Amino acid sequence: MTRWIAAAAVALAGLACRASHAPTTEPAPGADRSAGSAGVGTDPGHAGYGTPLKASGPDKLAAFAAGCFWGVEDAYRRVPGVVATAVGYAGGHTSDPTYEKVCTHTTGHAETVLVEYDPSRVPYEHLLRVFWKIHDPTQVGGQGPDEGDNYRSIIFTFDADQAAAARASEQAEQRSLSAPIVTEIRPMPPFYEAEAYHQQYAERTGHHGCPVRLPADTL
């Protein structure tokens, strides 16, 4: 009986997650995802399903988890100097995450946005400033009405320089906040690209189901 109750609770959690962020528009089979309507690409680091990431040419990669990835990706796609973005799952202990599995809060993965950017046009420090602006880094176990570890706040770093910049930025941000920041700062783990219907969701559908804290035009 106890096992049945636990299984039912996991199923209900998945249903609630799907209901709050259910897709409304599926991309057409074989649709071209090489570039978005804003001229920002959709293949950062040649992202795949847990495969190695490598930026193109002099570009660099960054990754952030700040709640529902639809709104977070939409914000970063509006930042000048961002070359490409994709949404996916990272930071968990399973190697086969899907949206349904992540929604059960049993995988440890967070909804994550992978960003490829041109450092000659936008410094990493500005991407960090955007991160702090678009969500509440003091909220524990979720973001806004979205509750669960898949919505937690994380900065994933690709090298020692990014880690140092992230920690310095966190210290600066903390001085302006009364509550403690709970954001994790950790090395980038494998990135598992999310299902096609999640990619560039706001841009593709015009549906802003996960708005960020500030108007994207101010980023």
| Radius of gyration based on Cα positions | 17 Å
Shape: globular
Number of β-strand runs: 8
Query: Structural class given helices, strands, pairing?
Result: alpha+beta
Between the first and last Cα atoms, what is the distance in angstroms?
A: 51 Å
Low-confidence stretches: 1-16, 24-37
**CATH hierarchy, class:** Alpha Beta
Task: Determine the mean pLDDT.
Answer: 86
Largest sheet: 6 strands, mixed
Examine the coordinates and then state which fold CATH places here, giving the name of the CATH topology: Peptide Methionine Sulfoxide Reductase, Chain A
What is the N-to-C order of secondary-structure elements (H for helix, E for strand)?
HEHEHEHEEEHEEH
**What's the number of domains?**
1
